[in-house]
Amino acid sequence: MSRVGWDTIRFSEEEQCGVICSHDDPLIIEADISNFDVGCILIDTSSSVSVMFAEAFNELQVPNHLLDQTITPLVSFSSDVVQPIGSIHLPISIGSAPQQTTITTPFMIVDCPMTYNVILGRPTLA
């Protein structure tokens, strides 16, 4: 099932090389966020928010005064409570022309160490 107006994501045989079905490997993508190429983006369909880690956010050179500071704490993977720095709506483009789509999505900015730059959650994927 895909969003109205969106094409179904399909992987070529070359892209599926080495993948053993049924698998539970994480889906890691690259995307353009606020006109910057951002790699190491984890797709997490169980996350209720999209999270951008502070180090990646700082690389985007978005002024901090644009952050919305009225936010609530998040519960991390390890059940720790994390206080985000703020939240912001940024454009994200996925795909390449002519099969590219751009949406504006809210990100919670969190300052903690992480393997990924961004975690895209359900609100962005719906």
Secondary structure layout plus pairing:
Elements: E1 27-33, E2 36-43, E3 51-53, H1 54-59, E4 74-75, E5 81-82, E6 86-96, E7 99-110, E8 118-120, H2 122-125
Parallel strand pairs: 2-8, 3-7
Antiparallel strand pairs: 1-2, 1-6, 3-8, 4-5, 6-7
CATH homologous superfamily identity? Acid Proteases
Helix/strand class: mainly beta
Task: Spell the H/E element sequence.
Answer: EEEHEEEEEH
Low-confidence spans: pLDDT under 50, at least 5 residues? none
Give the N-terminus to C-terminus distance in angstroms.
11 Å
Strand content: 35-45%
Shape field: globular
Level-1 CATH class name: Mainly Beta
Helix-residue proportion = under 10%
CATH topology: Cathepsin D, subunit A, domain 1
Mean pLDDT: 86
Give a brief rundown of this model.
By secondary structure, this protein is mostly beta strands. It is 8% helix and 38% strand.
Describe the structure using short key phrases.
126 residues, mainly beta, Cathepsin D, subunit A, domain 1, 6-stranded mixed barrel, two-stranded antiparallel sheet, 2 helices, 8 strands, 38% strand, globular
